[in-house]
Write a structure and sequence with these properties.
2 copies of one chain form a homodimer.
Chain A (H helix, E strand, L loop, with lengths): L2 H11 L15 E5 L2 E11 L10 H19 L1 E13 L4 H17 L3 E10 L4 E10 L14 E4 L10 H4 L4 H7 L5 E6 L4 H11 L4 E5 L7 H7 L3 H10 L6 E5 L13 H4 L3 E4 L3 E6 L2 E5 L12
Parallel strand pairs in A: 3-4, 8-11
Antiparallel strand pairs in A: 1-2, 2-5, 3-5, 6-9, 6-10, 7-9, 8-10, 11-12
Helix pairs in contact in A: 2-3, 2-5, 7-8
C-alpha cells in the first residue's frame, strides 16, 4: 500500500458533510464556519525523511512552515495563523533550538502570518516539526478536481534537482496562488511536492480520470537538475518530471483563454507545458512523437496489507 | 532549561498583536479573523513519551484527539475541526494502522468534530501522532490569567494515578468547559495535564504572580491512585497533586458566588479544593496547619542552556 492509496482510504474513513466544501485529499481543507470559511493544512517534516541530520536547523524551520504555506498557496488561500508542534531529540543544544525557531519565525514573517501556539516534547528519536497553517480564501478555492479535457497545463517555476538545496529554501507561491484564484479561466491547481508526474496523475484522477500530454521542450528544468545531469538532457528532463519537492504550483486553464496581463506570473509560467486530454494516462510529446509515461516520484511506502 | 521556561520564551519570540486576544502560553490560542474568532491548539503524542509501544493503538488515537479537545475545553471552546499528522514507523501493520484510525475517528465523533485533513509520513523511528484542533468560543474565552486573591479553586474530577490507564481513556471536559465559560463568576481555567501543582503554579503565574492554599481533605483522589498507594493516604495525596495527565479542568471562581444549579458539574466539583491568595507560593492546609509545597509534576527537560 502506498501513501496515495492510504490517503484515498482516509477520505472515505473520515467522511465529510455540507460544512466541508473541500476535505481530505486536496492540498488543504476548506471548512465552512457560521461566520466564514477557513483553509486548513498540517504537514510534518521529519529528520531522516524530509531533511538530513546535517541540514542547518533554520532551513528546517523554514521548510516546515513553507511546505504548509505552499499547500495554502495551491488552494488560492492567504495564510493567517500557524501552530508549531516540536518533538525534539533529547540533548538538542540550545543554539540549534534557537536556529530552528529563527527559521520558523522568518518563514512566518515572509508569509505574513503568525505563530500563535503549539507544543513541545522531548524524546529519544529524530526531530519532528509539525506545522499547521490556517488561512482564508482570497476568492474561490482552487482545488485539484476541476481540470477539463483541452485545458492547458502550467507551472509557476522550474522543476527537478530540489535535493541540492531548493527543498529547504523554496518560497511558497502565495502571490501566484491568490492571483490564479481570482481568474475563472483557471480550473484546477495543486502544489508539486511528490514530483510533476505523480502530482499531475493525482490532479487528473481527482478531476474524474483524465489524462495529459506533456510537451518535452516546454517543461522548465531547474539549473540544479541540469548541472547534476552534466549535459544529459534526457536525465535532466526525467529529474524535472519525477524528483519532487519543487513546491511550485501546477495549474490547468481553459484552452484559448489567456490570463490577464500583469500579476505575479512569469512569462515562462504563462506558456503551457502540456495539455489535458480525455483519455486517462500520461504522455510525453516531442518531435511529433507521443511516448507513454509512468507516474513516478516520491511516495511513502506503507508496509502491510 | 525546562519546558515551561522554553514556552515562556516562545511567547516573547513569536510576539502577538491585536488580532491575537490569547497567544502562546495558554491551553489554546484565540485568534480574531475578519469574520469571527477561532480557538486553535496542536499537541503531539509520541511513542515512548506519551504512550508505550504496548498501548493499543485505538487508545493512542483517542488520546491524540482528546488531549487537544481537553485544551479546547479549558478555553470554554467547542471543537469543530481536526487535522491529523501521522509519522508512522516503517513496517507498521495495516491492522494496527486501522486501530489508530478507529481511535481517532471515535474520539472525533464523541467530541462532535470532524477530521478534515492532515498528512502521513513513514520513518525509522517511533510513532508520532500530531492532532490540531480548531473550535469556536461558546461565550467568552476562559484563560489562565484571570485568577484573583480570594477565588476558590475547583476541579471537574479526581486526580492521580492516570498512568494506570486514565491517561489513554479520559474524556475531555467539553460540556463542563463550555458551561463554565457562560458564568462570569468563573475567573480562570486550565487543563490539568502536567499535574495539579505544576499547572496551578502556571495559572497563578499567568494571573500576575499569586499563590494558593490547597485543602488536603478536599482534593479528590482517583481510585487508581488510592489503590496504588495501598492505604498510604499521604502517598495517594501526593499522586493526586503531582502525577499529571488527569485532563480534568482546574478553575477559579469568585469567593461566595456560587454557580447556578443544573449543568454538567458534579456536586464534588462545586466544593472548593483550595483558594487563591495574594502571597506567591503553594501551601497544603490540613488540621489547622499550613505546609509549603513545591510545584512538581511532569516537565520535558530540555538539555542545553
Amino acid at each position: 500500500m502506498d501513501e496515495r492509496t492510504f490517503v484515498q482510504g482516509l477520505a472515505r474513513w473520515f467522511a465529510g458533510d455540507r460544512r466541508l466544501p473541500v476535505g481530505i485529499g486536496d492540498d488543504a481543507a476548506v471548512v465552512r464556519n457560521p461566520t466564514g470559511s477557513s483553509v486548513l493544512c498540517c504537514d510534518p517534516v521529519v529528520e531522516g525523511v524530509h531533511f538530513t541530520a546535517a541540514a542547518p536547523l533554520h532551513l528546517v524551520g523554514r521548510k516546515a512552515v513553507n511546505r504548509n504555506l505552499s499547500d495554502l498557496a495551491a488552494m488560492g488561500a492567504v495564510p493567517d495563523w500557524l501552530l508549531v508542534s516540536l518533538v525534539l531529540p533529547r540533548g538538542l543544544a540550545a543554539a540549534r533550538r534557537r536556529q530552528l525557531l529563527q527559521g520558523l519565525r522568518a518563514a512566518a514573517r515572509q508569509g505574513r502570518c503568525q505563530v500563535v501556539g503549539g507544543d513541545v516534547a522531548v524524546h529519544d528519536g529524530p526531530l519532528v516539526v509539525t506545522v499547521t497553517a490556517i488561512g482564508h480564501l482570497a476568492g474561490r478555492a482552487l482545488t485539484r478536481a476541476g481540470a477539463r479535457p483541452g485545458d492547458t497545463l502550467h507551472v509557476t517555476g522550474p522543476l527537478g534537482g530540489a535535493a541540492a538545496g531548493h527543498h529547504l529554501r523554496f518560497r511558497p507561491a502565495l502571490r501566484e496562488g491568490a492571483w490564479l484564484a481570482r481568474h475563472g479561466a483557471v480550473h484546477a491547481a495543486m502544489d508539486v511536492s511528490d514530483g510533476l508526474l505523480l502530482d499531475l496523475a493525482t490532479l487528473l484522477h481527482a478531476s474524474g480520470g483524465l489524462g495529459a500530454e506533456l510537451f518535452a521542450d516546454a517543461v522548465p528544468i531547474r539549473t540544479a537538475a541540469r548541472r547534476r545531469a552534466r549535459g544529459d538532457h534526457e536525465r535532466a528532463l526525467r529529474a524535472a518530471l519525477g524528483d519532487g519537492e519543487d513546491h511550485v504550483l501546477l495549474w490547468t486553464q481553459a484552452h484559448g483563454r489567456a490570463l490577464p496581463a500583469g500579476g505575479p506570473l512569469s512569462a515562462r509560467a504563462r506558456r503551457p507545458i502540456g495539455r489535458v486530454v480525455a483519455e486517462p494516462g500520461l504522455w510525453l510529446c516531442r518531435q511529433g512523437r507521443r511516448e507513454r509515461l509512468q507516474p513516478q516520484g516520491y511516495q511513502h511506502a506503507l508496509a502491510g496489507r
